[in-house]
Design goal:
Blueprint lengths: L1 H32 L5 H12 L3 E2 H8 L3 H13 L3 E6 L2 E9 L1 H25 L4 H25 L2
């Protein structure tokens, strides 16, 4: 049992370290190109670019933040000219977001940067077999579902 806890602790430390180092490397590369935008703003732009009829609620749920936090970011992104709001003819209450030309440029730049990160990281992923990657994916999928359930419980 003691050995399991040790491996569990090692795994959790590895995940935190991986996450920190990936964000650090990505941030350096992103800042050069997207220095006018904070990482969270870029991630919101990315989500809006990939999903139709994005609203405050969808963004808040996706990023596990409050509607108020998303409203503040949306306001900043509108001021920067990256997104604009609209309403559907059949629903005059709900406000949705879409990218402007400026937002599309940010989206495309972010997408290109991620392709470069993927190329950078292929070196390590190419060293694993499909079976090994399946085991890792199986674990991360189960862990994410567990964390999502825990997050949902905090909202009740």
């Amino acid at each position: 049992m003691g050995n399991f806890m040790n491996k569990q602790e090692q795994l959790m430390m590895s995940f935190r370290s991986l996450s920190f180092k990936i964000r650090w490397l990505d941030k350096i590369n992103m800042e050069e190109v997207l220095n006018n935008y904070k990482p969270f703003e870029v991630h919101c732009i990315d989500y809006i670019g990939k999903n139709e009829d994005t609203n405050v609620t969808k963004l808040a749920k996706t990023f596990c933040v409050t509607n108020g936090a998303i409203s503040k970011v949306a306001k900043k992104l509108m001021q920067k000219g990256a997104i604009e709001s609209y309403k559907r003819p059949n629903n005059k209450k709900e406000v949705y977001f879409k990218l402007t030309d400026e937002g599309q440029k940010v989206y495309n730049t972010h997408k290109s940067a991620h392709q470069a990160f993927k190329k950078r990281d292929n070196i390590i992923f190419d060293g694993f077999t499909d079976d090994e990657l399946d085991v890792i994916l199986n674990f991360t999928d189960k862990y994410l579902k567990y964390l999502n359930t825990a997050i949902e419980k905090t909202k009740r």
